[in-house]
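Extended Data, record 2,4-dichlorophenol 6-monooxygenase
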Amino acid sequence: MQTKSTAVLVVGGSLVGLSAAVFLAWRGVPTVVVERHLGSHPHPRAIGFTPRTLELFRAVGLGARIPQAPPGMRLRRVRAESLSGQWFEESAWTPEDRSVPDLEFSPCRGAAMAQDRLEPILREQALALGADLRLGTELIRFEQSADGVVAWLRGRDGQEEMLRADYLVAADGHRSPVREALGIGRSGRGHMRTARSVIFRAPLQEYLKAGVSQFNIVQPGFEAFLTTYGDGRWLLIHRDDRELDDAELRAVIARAIGRDDVPVEVVTTGRWEISALIADRFASGRVFLAGDAAHTLPPNRGGYGANTGIDDAHNLAWKLAAVHSGAASPRLLDTYDAERRPIAWLRHQQIFARDDFKPMAAPGSDAPILDDAAMEFGQLYRSDAVLGADATLPPAARPDQWAGQPGTRAPHLWVEKGGERVSTLDLLQRTWVLITEDERWTPAAVQAARASGLALECVRMGGDVRPVDAEAFRNALGLKAGGASLIRPDGYVAWRSVDLPDSPVDALREALAKAASATRLG
């Protein structure tokens, strides 16, 4: 059997696997994706994508292709007798804090888009960037060694082939055969309940005029959850864990709507294992877990499911690209588990801190509720790829509560470049970036880049790029006039020098060598 080769094999071609393919191929990493299905599942799961996810897609050229939610839009949920019956109190995902200032933390808004509408866009972009997508192909088994991973693949026609990859990314879902083969256990709240669902079409737009899109249906002897995908399709989740025939399905739908005179088209049904489990390791040798394979979280209004997995893929992609190019040591890949697993646990904790899931929390698991902006933009990374994220820092805080500390997402600020108003985020994510106001860092960046073998761009504020508010820029990055901030290719602060050191080039060379695990130290 002939053996072909690639740099990265991604197992699973749903949201997280496709995102990984886009992020890897955009960075020039040869990538093969295998997916046993021929397309998107007819039962969409994810429905909302967060501003941070939109930032990541914007960076790889998808900003114009994903329609963003209208300004000020928020997800509203009420308890109701039925959709057409009496509505009761509205519940919030996070209790409102009127003392928190209304600030702009991103150039992006979220997207209210069904998963099966987003996946074709990701497939098209991955192919355009050079990824090899193999639909209708499944992983039979794999073996790994110190040199790579060998995978046995089977197509729909029954033909088998061997593929050698330097690394394997398992984005193969919550049951993850790859995770099981590696013997990686899981911890967390565990299985909570099993639910059934049905996707249907019905002309119910009149009930969305009030701006509410989610409904907890509560009747004597009947509880369900009803929401819309915004495209004529509705999702109904009910607790009767048995297969219903067509008449029974329509009766359940009519009960949730509160009317039986509405034309209903049943699209598909599903069965949900609602659980909260985090893998004990996100990596084993040359194999990495991402998305539901790494963390299974119950559907929630915080977007902690698919969005967390997409962020996994983004974190891992730049590290695999750095190692593949030879600019960084494989030690850099150890920081994937160190950075992403605590985030999964933080989101697990926050789900059960909120009212939606608090009744199902494990005893003694009380935790303070963190602000939505903190969870979206202000999570902290601690690893060997971050210099200076000490233990006194909180796991997350709103961007306006951070001041450019290493381990935080570089802040969004408006700047002028080439006569245009752009976000600081638009200057990032392609490569390593040094941001400073002091021109003495420019030659230091050139020398440090040459010594490390890393691509490093020096962005001097006040030169070709001018901050709209210079004081706000310094405060947001925590810098004095002579300071500099080193931003990783994923847009996170790796290191900073608050002021100008005695030897900028030595300080920067040392920071790059540590943060990037560089193979060449000069």
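Summary. Residues 3-68+108-186+276-360 form a domain with the FAD/NAD(P)-binding domain fold (CATH 3.50.50.60).
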